[in-house]
Amino acid sequence: xxxxxxxxxxxxxxxxxxxxxxxxxxxxxxxxxxxxxxxxxxxxxxxxxxxxxxxxxxxxxxxxxxxxxxxxxxxxxxxxxxxxxxxxxxxxxxxxxxxxxxxxxxxxxxxxxxxxxxxxxxxxxxxxxxxxxxxxxxxxxxxxxxxxxxxxxxxxxxxxxxxxxxxxxxxxxxxxxxxxxxxxxxxxxxxxxxxxxxxxxxxxxxxxx
Amino acid sequence: xxxxxxxxxxxxxxxxxxxxxxxxxxxxxxxxxxxxxxxxxxxxxxxxxxxxxxxxxxxxxxxxxxxxxxxxxxxxxxxxxxxxxxxxxxxxxxxxxxxxxxxxxxxxxxxxxxxxxxxxxxxxxxxxxxxxxxxxxxxxxxxxxxxxxxxxxxxxxxxxxxxxxxxxxxxxxxxxxxxxxxxxxxxxxxxxxxxxxxxxx
Lengths: 209, 201
What we know:
Chain A is an all-alpha fold. Chain A has helices spanning 3-18, 24-33, 38-56, 63-66, 70-85, 89-109, 111-164, 168-176, 192-204.
């Protein structure tokens, strides 16, 4: 052990030495070793002088009057709080929530209920698939009807464009007349060869006034 | 070495009574054994005797409520220290709020000491203890707690180490520093130097 280690050991033991809390062996060793360090020896002397008063006094004697009957008060209060604790509304609420939670937990963690949950999930999956299939069919039908509707529109457009190729006055008469009462609308009922015949006839007609 | 009440009654006796179902006797023994220990911790943290008394009661009530679930691998003193500091911080918080709203004025050890010394010049153990406590408050918390737990409560370094979360080597250094600083502060204290002079005569 070098000097530094000895000094560190002495410093660590100094308070216990001053308050006589070292073993006989350590106390003797301390008294012998401290002689090597005069500054530490002086510190020990000062501490011994100052703390001797403290050692003689029972510093906590004053506590006795303050802590008189404390054990009685504590035990009484403890019994009282134990009794009233179970009567509190908050306790009842917490207890019932706990019971409900436990019942639900147990119910859902039973293997039988787990199978039910799995089968329910499977049913749900089937339902979802079925509904998605029906949705697809509806969409297709809608798409088809839209296509048909578009063909009608194309036919109308052909008729309209044919009419627009006619002379301006006729076109003027057509656009300003009531569309519902025009004979033009009967064109829709004609077949394609009849329309071609009609166009040929109309081309050969002289419409000059 | 001083024999404290803490040493005379063993934790084992409290456990034995608890195990036999004699809760009443176990509680009484438990409180009697640790009341000064808990009260002094509370006093150091709260610096007010009335609050320290309340804290001591609350600590024991809380401890008795949970003593059944206490794992007996550590000592009761270590466990009680944790409960006491927790109760003290709750009381401190409450007092701060009350003071903030002007519901209460702070009564500290200084006020009590000035009043009592002014009224009666007789110097008792209690006065010495109060003055010493004031001096102790001037130390850093770790040094103060190390000194108090070792000197007053006679706890082992291992127990203090568990309580304060410091290594045994660190604690010994803290203890040495605390004693050094206390020696200086005791010398400077008018009241205590007067006592020492009288005592040395």
